[in-house]
Design brief:
Layout: H1 5-12, H2 17-47, H3 53-88, H4 100-114, H5 117-170, H6 173-220, H7 231-243
Protein backbone atom coordinates (compact mmCIF):
# COMPACT_ATOMS: atom_id res chain seq x y z
CA UNK A 1 0.00 0.00 0.00
CA UNK A 2 3.01 2.24 0.39
CA UNK A 3 3.26 4.87 -2.36
CA UNK A 4 -0.15 3.95 -3.77
CA UNK A 5 -3.06 6.21 -4.58
CA UNK A 6 -4.99 4.80 -1.62
CA UNK A 7 -2.24 5.81 0.78
CA UNK A 8 -2.24 9.35 -0.63
CA UNK A 9 -5.98 9.65 -0.20
CA UNK A 10 -5.88 8.35 3.39
CA UNK A 11 -2.97 10.67 4.19
CA UNK A 12 -4.94 13.65 2.86
CA UNK A 13 -7.75 12.71 5.29
CA UNK A 14 -5.25 12.30 8.11
CA UNK A 15 -5.92 8.57 8.33
CA UNK A 16 -3.32 5.79 8.71
CA UNK A 17 -4.64 2.26 8.11
CA UNK A 18 -1.29 0.65 8.97
CA UNK A 19 -1.26 2.37 12.35
CA UNK A 20 -4.73 1.00 13.07
CA UNK A 21 -3.62 -2.53 12.12
CA UNK A 22 -0.47 -2.33 14.24
CA UNK A 23 -2.43 -1.17 17.30
CA UNK A 24 -4.88 -4.03 16.80
CA UNK A 25 -2.06 -6.59 16.59
CA UNK A 26 -0.42 -5.16 19.72
CA UNK A 27 -3.72 -5.33 21.61
CA UNK A 28 -4.15 -9.00 20.66
CA UNK A 29 -0.61 -9.78 21.85
CA UNK A 30 -1.26 -8.06 25.19
CA UNK A 31 -4.48 -10.03 25.68
CA UNK A 32 -2.76 -13.35 24.91
CA UNK A 33 0.11 -12.60 27.30
CA UNK A 34 -2.25 -11.55 30.11
CA UNK A 35 -4.38 -14.64 29.57
CA UNK A 36 -1.45 -17.07 29.81
CA UNK A 37 0.02 -15.25 32.82
CA UNK A 38 -3.28 -15.62 34.63
CA UNK A 39 -3.51 -19.26 33.54
CA UNK A 40 -0.03 -19.98 34.94
CA UNK A 41 -0.83 -18.23 38.22
CA UNK A 42 -4.11 -20.12 38.75
CA UNK A 43 -2.53 -23.45 37.74
CA UNK A 44 0.25 -22.93 40.31
CA UNK A 45 -2.35 -22.30 43.03
CA UNK A 46 -4.43 -25.34 42.15
CA UNK A 47 -1.47 -27.70 41.82
CA UNK A 48 0.37 -26.14 44.78
CA UNK A 49 3.77 -26.18 43.06
CA UNK A 50 5.07 -22.75 44.12
CA UNK A 51 8.65 -23.00 45.38
CA UNK A 52 9.15 -26.56 44.11
CA UNK A 53 10.87 -28.19 41.15
CA UNK A 54 7.49 -28.84 39.58
CA UNK A 55 6.98 -25.07 39.26
CA UNK A 56 9.63 -24.89 36.51
CA UNK A 57 8.07 -27.86 34.72
CA UNK A 58 4.68 -26.16 34.85
CA UNK A 59 6.13 -22.93 33.45
CA UNK A 60 7.80 -24.81 30.58
CA UNK A 61 4.54 -26.60 29.77
CA UNK A 62 2.50 -23.37 29.76
CA UNK A 63 5.09 -21.60 27.59
CA UNK A 64 5.02 -24.50 25.11
CA UNK A 65 1.25 -24.19 24.82
CA UNK A 66 1.56 -20.41 24.48
CA UNK A 67 4.08 -20.72 21.65
CA UNK A 68 1.85 -23.17 19.77
CA UNK A 69 -1.17 -20.91 20.05
CA UNK A 70 0.85 -17.75 19.33
CA UNK A 71 2.29 -19.29 16.16
CA UNK A 72 -1.12 -20.21 14.80
CA UNK A 73 -2.54 -16.86 15.82
CA UNK A 74 0.27 -14.92 14.14
CA UNK A 75 -0.39 -16.69 10.84
CA UNK A 76 -4.09 -15.87 10.97
CA UNK A 77 -3.43 -12.25 11.95
CA UNK A 78 -0.96 -11.89 9.08
CA UNK A 79 -3.67 -13.01 6.66
CA UNK A 80 -6.09 -10.60 8.30
CA UNK A 81 -3.59 -7.74 7.87
CA UNK A 82 -3.17 -8.49 4.15
CA UNK A 83 -6.92 -8.67 3.66
CA UNK A 84 -7.41 -5.30 5.36
CA UNK A 85 -4.70 -3.60 3.30
CA UNK A 86 -5.81 -5.04 -0.05
CA UNK A 87 -9.58 -4.84 0.41
CA UNK A 88 -10.74 -2.77 3.39
CA UNK A 89 -8.33 0.16 2.96
CA UNK A 90 -8.11 0.29 -0.83
CA UNK A 91 -10.12 2.94 -2.65
CA UNK A 92 -11.81 2.06 -5.95
CA UNK A 93 -9.95 2.75 -9.17
CA UNK A 94 -10.54 6.25 -10.47
CA UNK A 95 -11.64 7.59 -7.09
CA UNK A 96 -10.64 11.18 -6.39
CA UNK A 97 -11.32 13.60 -3.60
CA UNK A 98 -13.63 16.53 -4.32
CA UNK A 99 -12.13 19.97 -4.88
CA UNK A 100 -12.14 22.59 -2.16
CA UNK A 101 -14.90 24.62 -3.83
CA UNK A 102 -17.04 21.49 -4.16
CA UNK A 103 -16.47 20.73 -0.51
CA UNK A 104 -17.41 24.30 0.34
CA UNK A 105 -20.62 24.05 -1.70
CA UNK A 106 -21.54 20.76 -0.11
CA UNK A 107 -20.91 22.19 3.34
CA UNK A 108 -23.13 25.19 2.66
CA UNK A 109 -25.86 22.89 1.36
CA UNK A 110 -25.67 20.78 4.47
CA UNK A 111 -25.67 23.91 6.60
CA UNK A 112 -28.81 25.14 4.84
CA UNK A 113 -30.54 21.83 5.41
CA UNK A 114 -29.56 21.78 9.07
CA UNK A 115 -30.71 25.37 9.65
CA UNK A 116 -34.08 24.94 7.87
CA UNK A 117 -36.79 26.34 10.21
CA UNK A 118 -39.38 23.86 8.97
CA UNK A 119 -37.08 20.96 9.75
CA UNK A 120 -36.30 22.40 13.18
CA UNK A 121 -40.01 22.82 13.92
CA UNK A 122 -40.74 19.27 12.80
CA UNK A 123 -37.91 17.92 14.94
CA UNK A 124 -39.17 19.86 17.95
CA UNK A 125 -42.66 18.50 17.37
CA UNK A 126 -41.29 14.97 17.14
CA UNK A 127 -39.34 15.45 20.37
CA UNK A 128 -42.47 16.74 22.11
CA UNK A 129 -44.56 13.85 20.81
CA UNK A 130 -41.88 11.39 21.86
CA UNK A 131 -41.86 12.86 25.38
CA UNK A 132 -45.64 12.63 25.60
CA UNK A 133 -45.59 9.04 24.33
CA UNK A 134 -42.95 8.17 26.93
CA UNK A 135 -45.02 9.71 29.73
CA UNK A 136 -48.17 7.96 28.51
CA UNK A 137 -46.29 4.68 28.25
CA UNK A 138 -45.05 5.02 31.83
CA UNK A 139 -48.59 5.80 33.00
CA UNK A 140 -49.95 2.76 31.19
CA UNK A 141 -47.23 0.59 32.70
CA UNK A 142 -48.16 1.79 36.19
CA UNK A 143 -51.85 1.09 35.52
CA UNK A 144 -50.96 -2.35 34.19
CA UNK A 145 -48.98 -3.13 37.34
CA UNK A 146 -51.90 -1.97 39.49
CA UNK A 147 -54.30 -4.15 37.51
CA UNK A 148 -51.97 -7.12 37.91
CA UNK A 149 -51.82 -6.50 41.66
CA UNK A 150 -55.61 -6.26 41.89
CA UNK A 151 -55.98 -9.37 39.77
CA UNK A 152 -53.63 -11.28 42.07
CA UNK A 153 -55.58 -10.08 45.14
CA UNK A 154 -58.90 -10.96 43.50
CA UNK A 155 -57.57 -14.38 42.57
CA UNK A 156 -56.53 -14.96 46.19
CA UNK A 157 -60.01 -13.98 47.45
CA UNK A 158 -61.63 -16.20 44.84
CA UNK A 159 -59.50 -19.10 46.01
CA UNK A 160 -60.60 -18.55 49.62
CA UNK A 161 -64.27 -18.43 48.56
CA UNK A 162 -63.88 -21.60 46.52
CA UNK A 163 -62.32 -23.36 49.50
CA UNK A 164 -65.22 -22.24 51.72
CA UNK A 165 -67.78 -23.43 49.15
CA UNK A 166 -66.01 -26.75 48.82
CA UNK A 167 -66.07 -27.17 52.58
CA UNK A 168 -69.78 -26.28 52.59
CA UNK A 169 -70.47 -28.84 49.87
CA UNK A 170 -68.49 -31.56 51.62
CA UNK A 171 -70.28 -31.03 54.97
CA UNK A 172 -73.83 -29.68 54.57
CA UNK A 173 -75.49 -27.46 57.19
CA UNK A 174 -78.18 -30.10 57.82
CA UNK A 175 -75.60 -32.74 58.67
CA UNK A 176 -73.80 -30.36 60.98
CA UNK A 177 -77.10 -29.46 62.74
CA UNK A 178 -78.04 -33.12 63.17
CA UNK A 179 -74.63 -33.83 64.66
CA UNK A 180 -75.03 -30.93 67.10
CA UNK A 181 -78.53 -32.17 68.16
CA UNK A 182 -77.23 -35.70 68.69
CA UNK A 183 -74.32 -34.44 70.75
CA UNK A 184 -76.63 -32.26 72.90
CA UNK A 185 -79.00 -35.21 73.49
CA UNK A 186 -76.15 -37.45 74.59
CA UNK A 187 -74.84 -34.75 76.89
CA UNK A 188 -78.29 -34.29 78.49
CA UNK A 189 -78.67 -38.03 79.08
CA UNK A 190 -75.27 -38.19 80.73
CA UNK A 191 -76.16 -35.23 82.99
CA UNK A 192 -79.46 -36.87 84.06
CA UNK A 193 -77.67 -40.11 84.87
CA UNK A 194 -75.12 -38.23 86.91
CA UNK A 195 -77.83 -36.33 88.80
CA UNK A 196 -79.77 -39.57 89.49
CA UNK A 197 -76.64 -41.19 90.86
CA UNK A 198 -76.00 -38.23 93.14
CA UNK A 199 -79.59 -38.36 94.50
CA UNK A 200 -79.38 -42.11 95.04
CA UNK A 201 -76.12 -41.71 96.91
CA UNK A 202 -77.65 -39.03 99.19
CA UNK A 203 -80.74 -41.21 99.94
CA UNK A 204 -78.58 -44.23 100.56
CA UNK A 205 -76.37 -42.25 102.93
CA UNK A 206 -79.43 -40.94 104.78
CA UNK A 207 -80.97 -44.43 105.09
CA UNK A 208 -77.68 -45.81 106.38
CA UNK A 209 -77.50 -43.02 108.94
CA UNK A 210 -81.07 -43.75 110.24
CA UNK A 211 -80.47 -47.48 110.24
CA UNK A 212 -77.26 -47.07 112.20
CA UNK A 213 -79.02 -44.82 114.71
CA UNK A 214 -81.81 -47.32 115.35
CA UNK A 215 -79.42 -50.22 115.49
CA UNK A 216 -77.27 -48.46 118.04
CA UNK A 217 -80.30 -47.63 120.17
CA UNK A 218 -81.65 -51.16 120.22
CA UNK A 219 -78.24 -52.55 120.88
CA UNK A 220 -77.91 -50.43 123.98
CA UNK A 221 -81.50 -51.16 125.23
CA UNK A 222 -81.79 -54.71 123.95
CA UNK A 223 -83.46 -56.12 127.17
CA UNK A 224 -86.07 -53.37 127.60
CA UNK A 225 -87.03 -53.06 123.90
CA UNK A 226 -89.13 -49.96 123.07
CA UNK A 227 -90.27 -49.37 126.65
CA UNK A 228 -87.57 -46.94 127.50
CA UNK A 229 -87.46 -45.27 124.09
CA UNK A 230 -88.20 -41.57 124.34
CA UNK A 231 -91.07 -40.06 122.40
CA UNK A 232 -88.83 -37.47 120.77
CA UNK A 233 -86.56 -40.20 119.46
CA UNK A 234 -89.51 -42.10 117.98
CA UNK A 235 -90.85 -38.96 116.28
CA UNK A 236 -87.42 -38.20 114.81
CA UNK A 237 -87.19 -41.78 113.62
CA UNK A 238 -90.63 -41.60 111.92
CA UNK A 239 -89.71 -38.31 110.28
CA UNK A 240 -86.59 -39.81 108.85
CA UNK A 241 -88.60 -42.80 107.55
CA UNK A 242 -91.04 -40.46 105.80
CA UNK A 243 -88.17 -38.65 104.11
CA UNK A 244 -86.95 -41.95 102.77
Amino acid sequence: MEGSESEAIFDSLNLNPQLFINETLNTVDDLVNDAFDFYLQEASKLLKVDGTDRSQDLTKGVNHIRNMIQSSLDKRLAMWEKYCLHHCFTVPEGFSLPKNDELSGSSSMVQDIVSDPDVDAELESLRHNLTMVGAESEKLNNELKELERQSASSGHCTGLINEALKLYEDTSVHDMFQEMVQTATELRGKMLKLKTRQVERKEQARAERVYNSITDHFTVNQEKGLVNVKLDDLQEFLAELKKI
